[in-house]
Hints:
This protein is an all-alpha fold. Helices cover 70% and strands 0% of the residues. The two termini are 16 Å apart.
Amino acid sequence: MLFNSRVFLVFFVIVYVSYLLLKKRWRVQNAMLLVASYIFYGWWDWRFLSLIFISTVIDYIAGLNIIKANNPSRRKLFLVLSCITNLGLLGVFKYFDFFIGSATELLNFLNVDASRLYLHVTLPVGISFYTFQTMSYTIDIYRGRLKPTRNFWDFALFVSFFPQLVAGPIERAIHLLPQISGPRRITPELIRSGIFLVIWGLFKKVFIADNCMVIVNEVFANHPDYGGLAYLAAIYAFAVQIFCDFSGYSDIARGISMLMGFDLMLNFNLPYFAVSPSDLWRRWHISLSSWLRDYLYISLGGNRGGVYKTYRNLMLTMLLGGLWHGAKWTMVLWGFYHGLLLVVQRLLSGVMSGSPDKDQEPTGLRKWLQIILMFHLTCFGWLLFRAVDMPQVWDMLVGMCTSFKLTSMELQILYHTLALSSPLILMQFCQYLSGDLLIFLRWRPTTKWAFLLVMSALVFITINLFAIGVSDANVFIYFQF
Length: 481
């Protein structure tokens, strides 16, 4: 079930009306939300509900036993059980065929028929998100930062809460569980913020991202027919597409949750205004980058143990972060690239300030030059992320340096990219200069409602009238991760 589909609209109206009718019985609300969440996820393939249930049961039991254990080895045993279960599910369904495929040549050399080893299983939607979410629960209990809940059904709702189940944000139990384990209050401010985020998220996904997708798919699928200008426009278009697609999902998830009185964490904070690689990861997919920092980077030793171990930890964290995004070598390379940027940043900051941990905020012209530079470094990373393979990356890089064809088709691609990006650029500048991501709520009522009506109309028209290759339910990019 997709946020941008008609069936979800019907589903949510039914769920929301039921939720409001049960406002004085929050325990019954929770039971209804749990059933709704399982229906929501089972809409893709009901068989994969068993994976969520297995993860829920194991982590619930592990959490209770970690806190009850009398000795460290027993506590660690249940933590390992949780990690092995969740990482095992990821390994089988997401990475097994990838590693078998990567080892094919060696297996063939050993006269092993690799085709028999492939599992050919379908990747369950959102498995990377909910496994990380449940792992953080048991790790936090093990570290003494959280007490386990004894209410299994509250924990089951924490794992499967439908707004953020399949593409985040990856919530921490310390933030979401207390909201589940008590009554919620729906205020006018939450309703206004929720409505804006839902409509703005749908606009970013349906009107901007899905139309940018047409440009990106055309150029990347037929790149020998185009030149450097089209390549550059397609990379810019993909930067806009992936941001609007993913942040659009997060906005809708947060907006829907606000309408029900829940507060989900902010997952995107104007990432294309980042001034450095570390600043980018404080702004982009915040729930994942903070998860990797807290549970992987720090566990590896963080910046303790000397400079070279810090660089090693950064590279390992980003390599695994790249692999989290997809079982492809281009994703591993993308992770390596961002790890390299973080290492170079620390090297340069150490030379310039004498301390690699010092991260000064630039000002004035220098600040805007760093924003422009960081945006283009990010865009190069998006080329690695989007390309089918490394030969395509090389062809497009060479083309951007040697083959700028000023044909009408290339100029049209660039024009469409700029036209589709302009609403996002204007809104982002308003948000950045005001320092308020919800600046829309401070506008005059007439301006506010006119803006909402225009966005709603464009979403409706895009879905129903434009014959431009955009369906009413294009899957969100991060569903494949």
